[in-house]
Amino acid sequence: MVERYVISIDQGTLSTRCILFDQQGRLVSVAQREHEQYYAKPGWAEHDPTEIWSHLRRTVVPRALEGAGVGPDRITAIGIANQRETTVVWDRRTGVPVCHAITWQDTRTSGYVERLRRTTGDDFFLERCGLFPTTYFSAPRLRWLFDHVEGLRARAERGEVLFGTMESWLIWNLTGGPDGGLHLTDATNASRTMLMNIRTLTWDDELLAYFDVPRAMLPEIRPSAECYGMARAPLPGVPICAALGDQQAALFGQTCFACGEAKCTYGTGSFLLLNTGTELVRSRHGLLTTVGYQIGDEPAVYALEGPIAVTGSLVQWFRDRLGLIHSAPEIETLARGVEDNGGCYIVPAFSGLFAPHWRSDARGVIVGLTSYITRGHLARAVLEATGWQTREVVDAMNADSPRPLRQLKVDGGMTSNNLLMQFLADVLDVPVVRPMVSETVSLGAAYAAGLVSGYWPDLEGLRRNWHRAAQWMPTMDPARREAEYENWRRAVERSLGWARP
Questions:
Q1: DSSP state of 300
Q2: pLDDT, tens digit, for every residue of 427-459?
Q3: Does residue 356 have a cis peptide bond before it, meaning omega lies within 30 degrees of 0?
Q4: Which of 59, 249, 259, 337 could disulfide-pair with 277, CB 3.0 to 4.6 Å?
Q5: Which among 460, 449, 409, 411 is positioned nearest to 20, based on CA atoms?
Q6: DSSP state of 416
Q7: Rounded CA gap, 367 and 346, in Å?
């Protein structure tokens, strides 16, 4: 019998990659290519959508197939995971973007967002879309484009230009582009725009009117796992069967299918998602309500999310800006050279604080500097900042959810740091578990596509593919843990006090 595979396209912030998975959920072949990062002005962060599509079509998919020694005829289905919230607007007739994509990291809309919060308040948005008004989401960026690209709003009203996040852009191109390309998104990505009603999973008339977004430019909202249509080049005849935002894909790849199960992805930033089942839980403690996933006609599964803006990027800052290490892995060795942080705490609010504070005016601080502090203490404080920020999010989740966190599944590049993983278990007081397959974003997109196409039979079959690689148990004295947490919270108060003049 000829073996077949599922291919996952993971379109991320720094690169695009394709991975082929077999029926045991094992990685068979991978190809990856980075794309350019554009920073035209302070606070701006952009990508070239045409470059990303070109890399996918000409390099990434062909190399992934070549690595497995197969052609498109051996691929059962395509699943797509993508950087969320990044905003793309393109010409329906030509397929040419009207400008660079504005990424989720971009903060050019901060002034507009602050006015929203002052004049309208948070509740208007939380009630309709489950999100706080911040620079993080797509709608403020779309509004900015209307205000700064001449004639764009009129063209959108006439249906001449299309809006989408990165999965919409890729699906449109994969299915033909100007020649009949499908313009759609899934419920997880739509839930990050500030334009979708979180209860009905449809575009919300009040939100569209508020941001003055024409319905004619919006993609059709579909389930996360469903056969959308057939791809053309570079995967002709292969069905596209799933699309999920990257963090929801990681939730799916970690097989967090039961209410109360949670995962946290530790990368440039970190994102903790807690499955709340089919119940929509509105946070009262600074978290986001989002769609976890939706399989076909089944009810949507919701999640509480706590995004943390700066975790892995703090290690990069320590390496590149301060020059105290030569490579990211060195920070663990340096931090192990001291017993504790020496009373030093770092709050990395480089562009404000995300959950649970949502304060764009917060600024980074280092608290507790004395002549005793060495670079080893600073290294430890850098790693511990990720642990304490996670603790703040978990405390908020436990306050919002009727089921307190019992275990945290982790993935992402920072999980190779064993000292950090042990610190997480200590400050959260729960087991921290890392899976055998670390590529959980790509795996989640593949799982969702394979489920729809019949490659995998059911959710329990996917659970059986999940295997634990490592586990860390809490060991810290509770009194010490709470005393250090109180020190961290005082440091955060200092960060919040650095309001913009």
A1: P
A2: 999 999 999 988 899 999 999 999 999 999 999
A3: yes
A4: 259
A5: 449
A6: G
A7: 6
Tell me, what's the pLDDT at 1? 63
In this structure, what token pair is assigned to residue 336? 């192990």
Could you tell me the two tokens for 265?
Answer: 């992805």
Question: Which pairing describes strands 432-435 and 408-411: parallel, antiparallel, or unpaired?
Answer: parallel
- Residue 324 half-sphere exposure toward CB, CA atoms < 13 A: 19
Alpha helices, H only, 11-96 = 49-55, 61-68
Helices vs strands, H then E, count in the chain = 17, 23
The predicted pLDDT at position 47 comes to 95
Task: Find, among 215, 230, 219, 221, the residue nearest to 186 by Cα.
Answer: 221
Backbone dihedral angles phi then psi of residue 185, each to the nearest 5 degrees? -140, 170
Is residue 477 over pLDDT 60? Answer: yes
Query: How high does pLDDT run on average in the chain?
Result: 93
Name the 3-class secondary structure at 499: coil
* Cα 426-428-429 angle, rounded to 5 deg: 65
Percent of the chain with pLDDT over 70: 99
Other beta carbons within 10 angstroms of residue 371's beta carbon come to 5
Beta strands in 397-493 (DSSP E): 408-411, 432-435, 468-472
* Token digits of residue 237: 């005849």
Rg (CA), the chain: 22
Nearest to 423 by CA among 378, 381, 367, 483: 381
DSSP string, 27-48: EEEEEEEE---B--STT--EE-
How far is 472 from 495, CA to CA, in rounded Å? 30
User: What is residue 499's predicted lDDT score, i.e. its pLDDT?
Assistant: 54
Kindly state the tokens that stand for 161: 């230009």
What is the rounded CA–CA span in Å between residue 370 and residue 154? 59
pTM above 0.85, yes or no: yes
Q: Which two tokens stand for residue 383?
A: 């790693």
- Burial code (b: 16+ CB inside 10 Å, e: under 16) for 397-425 equals beebbebebeebbbbbebbebebbbbbbb
Angle between helix axes 138-148 and 110-119 (nearest 10 degrees) is 110
Res 501: pLDDT: 42
The DSSP secondary-structure symbol of 97 reads: B
